[in-house]
Amino acid sequence: MNESDEIKKKIKNINDRLIMLENIIKKKTNKYMESEKNLDYLSKKVNASITLLKQIFEFEGDNIMLLKIPGVDTKKQIQESTLLILLAFKYYIKKEEILSTEIKKILSEHGIPLNNFATHLKEIIPLFIRTIGKKKSTNISYRLTIPGEVRAVEILKNSLERGEIYERR
Residue 169 has what pLDDT? Predict the structure, then answer.
């Protein structure tokens, strides 16, 4: 192989890497644009500004974290936070069914005791939340009902108006 062939091979290699990097950038840009569009959609759905939503939720890729939690006692915190989490997942990530373990993980980051998680949620099932999966299974998913969605929006608005959302612990 002569010197010009080596140079051509190196140039082709560099060009291939550039194309690969351009594709990665396009994917990330598209994903960012999609997430911004979803955030705008969530904002319109709950009639709250994006700035306000970012005070309550932290959106990072396909993850949602609550920055502030509603409710005074543990039972209300579990019920109302779960409704908010399901609402955010539904309209931001476009995911309607959420595993209970995912919700528990988000709630546990706030130091909310989870030992009566299912018991507290039973009070709002099936009116606000539907369960998918076998009872007493660790593989249960939750989904908002239409009244649950209305209630989640009410919780968000009322809590913000009255200042009843508490900072993350």
Answer: 43
CA within 13 Å, CB half, 122: 6
Q: How many CB atoms lie within 10 A of CB 89?
A: 23
Phi, psi of 99 (to 5 degrees): -65, 145
Measured distance CA(121)–CA(119) in Å, rounded = 5
Q: In what order do the strands lie in the sheet with 141-144?
A: 98-99, 141-144, 129-132
Containing 43, the helix (H) or strand (E) segment is helix 3-46
- Span between the terminal Cα atoms of the chain, in Å: 66
Q: For 9-13, 70-74, 100-104, 157-161, which range has the lowest pLDDT when averaged over its residues?
A: 157-161
74 and 123 in contact (C-beta within 8 Å)?
A: no
Q: Is CATH 1.10.10.10 what the domain over 3-167 is classified as, yes or no?
A: yes
User: Looking up tokens 């009843």, which residue turns up?
Assistant: 164
Q: What is the pTM of this model?
A: 0.73
Give Cα 26 to chain centroid, integer Å: 23
